[in-house]
Design brief:
alpha/beta, globular, 176 residues, 44% helix
């Protein structure tokens, strides 16, 4: 089904983002033409058929997907080790945020939603990686979130600027 949707999107000049695993991921990547694919490290390892413990191996496999045209960008979530983003320009890596993780449920979905929003609003791949990392890491209940004060969290969430043209909230992730 993902491959069919990817073909339809390409035919209509639309960008297509994929977050799936197993056979569905393999088929979508074989079809190619995806804008962004977001496997976890475990999903990437399953796809290539081996463990990828070394960061250089992780980078190499993500770049291989980009180079063969499976996706324009490949974001791999690495859990406590952060995330990487492979593009035709190379691989960017960011560490995990220095915040207490209360649950990882939904972290990949939050990562992909924020990264996709950043790209849809004209953000660079580097900004998309920062947005995704910031959104996916501190999955805390609202009362607990008020107490978050780590430097990366503050960098990712302040200052916020309202972008009226897109009617969306922009988060300036390059602010220091």
């Amino acid at each position: 089904a993902y491959a069919k949707v990817a073909r339809i999107a390409a035919r209509k000049g639309q960008r297509f983002v994929v977050d799936t695993s197993g056979a569905a991921l393999a088929v979508a990547l074989a079809q190619g033409g995806c804008e962004l694919v977001k496997p976890s490290l475990g999903e990437l390892e399953h796809l290539v058929g081996r463990e990828l413990k070394d960061p250089a191996e992780q980078n190499k496999e993500a770049m291989a997907l980009v180079r063969r045209g499976a996706a324009r960008m490949v974001a791999v979530t690495l859990g406590a080790d952060g995330a990487l983003l492979a593009t035709e320009g190379g691989v960017l890596r960011v560490p995990a945020m220095d915040e207490a993780m209360h649950t990882s449920v939904g972290a990949g979905d939050a990562f992909l939603a924020a990264a996709t929003l950043s790209l849809a609003c004209g953000g660079s791949p580097a900004n998309a990686l920062d947005w995704g990392t910031a959104a996916g890491a501190p999955l805390l209940p609202a009362p607990a979130r008020r107490g978050c004060g780590g430097p990366m969290w503050r960098r990712a969430t302040s200052p916020c600027v309202h972008a009226r043209r897109q009617d969306a909230i922009w988060i300036n992730l390059s602010a220091k």
